[in-house]
Design brief:
The chain has 378 residues and is an alpha/beta fold. The protein has a single domain, classed as Alpha-Beta Barrel (TIM Barrel), CATH 3.20.20.70. It has 15 helices and ten strands. The strands form two sheets. The chain has an eight-stranded parallel β-sheet with strand order 3-10-9-8-7-6-5-4. A two-stranded antiparallel sheet has the order 1-2. Helix 12 links the parallel strand 8 and strand 9. Helix 1 packs antiparallel against helix 14 and helix 11 packs across helix 12. InterPro entries: Aldolase_TIM (IPR013785), Alpha-hydoxy_acid_DH_FMN (IPR012133), FMN-dep_DH (IPR000262), FMN_HAD (IPR037396). Its cofactor is FMN. Belongs to the FMN-dependent alpha-hydroxy acid dehydrogenase family.
């Protein structure tokens, strides 16, 4: 179906450009869009671009490794797969493509509450390399059912997303009438008709849906308020969850310090891909101050705005212990299917390795040691 399209992916910009050509406008704008006028996304990009990495010379960097410690194990790459809702919109079977990638690369796959493949199938296909991402919504009754289900499915890590008390306004989605569950009206039908390759393959495979809610007798409303979540909610989750607990969507240093005292296992600095609050602080700019405030023992993860291996190295140099990639992986799938995804992943690993060589480092752990950070928090 994709022919040789994957061969034209030489970086994330290529993947995005090809995805924009192949996807219906409604779907592309859902994946690509951000809150408000999207200035928050621009500020994150600017901050990453402003950071410089100084080349070092005459160091033996012939033996380089991208493996990094992660929760007492070793991840095969310094980046994992961020939880993303309804990934199968980017291409039929996208969720399982990402799961197979996680299994092969030994990296965590974030399985979204609103994934388009059931959580049980995802962790099985990922060969255990899966973390379940949790939204609190409504009165929480459905939320904690999902926690029990994740435990029964064998998940060892829960990622609680806390930066969506209300779903942010994303004008590109609103203009297209995007909804979950996915609905097709006259406007959407015309959009799909202009993109027959995507439409026909999606029709053959079936409409993507929020697969974790097709059983158990309750539903999930994407627009439902999540504003009732409190610190007591976190305490309840911590008490009932025996595994690792990551809290995602943290930008305030006082919040991060309180989370550390509350017994979470890691904090994920993120602005939800700039999809929630347009004027929120740039998450990349918060990394170094967050590390300084929390000390070296607290694991800090990062997502938002990463587009290259150089971006990944910049995050580690700023104090991150692990990073997650998001929408660029969906673009690669839309551009070239599973071959496109694998090609972009290989490109990102190559970019990271080359960047390390240029700055005179053999590993990200070595880079962090030179920067004065502990490369392997428990």
């Amino acid at each position: 179906m994709f022919g040789t399209a994957h061969k034209h992916i030489h970086g994330s910009d290529d993947a995005r450009r090809l995805a924009r050509r192949h996807l219906p406008r409604l779907v592309f704008d859902y994946i690509d869009g951000a809150a408000g006028r999207e200035t928050g996304a621009g500020r994150t990009r600017d901050a990453l671009d402003r950071m410089e990495l100084c080349p070092r010379i005459l160091r033996d960097v012939s033996a380089r490794s991208l493996a990094v410690p992660l929760f007492g194990k070793e991840a095969g790459a310094p980046f994992g797969i961020a939880p993303m809702g309804m990934c199968n919109l980017s291409g039929p079977g996208a969720d399982l493509m990402l799961a197979r990638l996680a299994a092969r690369e030994n990296v965590p796959l974030g399985v979204s509450t609103v994934a388009s493949t059931p959580m049980e199938e995802m962790i099985e296909t990922a060969q255990g390399n899966a973390w379940f991402q949790l939204y609190f919504s409504g009165d929480g009754s459905g939320t904690f059912k999902l926690v029990e289900r994740a435990r029964d499915a064998g998940y060892e890590t829960i990622v609680l997303t806390v930066d969506v008390p209300e779903v942010g306004r994303r004008p590109r989605e609103l203009r297209h009438g995007f909804t979950m569950p996915f609905r097709i009206g006259p406007k959407q039908f015309i959009d799909f008709a202009l993109h027959p390759r995507w439409s026909l393959t999606t029709l053959l495979k079936g409409r993507p849906d929020m697969a974790n809610f097709l059983r158990d007798g309750y539903t999930f409303d994407r627009t439902e308020s999540r504003a009732r979540a409190t610190w007591d909610t976190l305490d309840r989750l911590r008490d009932m969850w025996p595994g690792k607990l990551v809290v995602k969507g943290v930008l305030d240093i006082e919040d991060a310090q309180r989370l550390a005292r509350s017994g979470v296992d890691a904090i994920q600095v993120s602005s939800h891909g700039a999809r929630q609050l347009e004027s929120s602080p740039c998450p990349f700019s918060q990394l170094a101050p967050m590390r300084a405030a929390l000390g070296e023992s607290m694991p800090i993860f990062y997502d938002t705005g990463l587009r290259s291996g150089e971006d990944v190295v910049k995050c580690y140099a700023s104090g991150a212990n692990f990073t997650f990639l998001g929408r660029i992986l969906q673009f690669a799938i839309a551009a070239g299917g599973e071959e496109g995804l694998n090609r972009l992943w290989a490109t990102l690993k190559s970019e990271t390795s080359i960047t390390l060589a240029q700055i005179g480092q053999c590993s990200l752990a070595e880079l962090q040691k030179e920067k004065g950070a502990d490369p392997a928090p428990s």
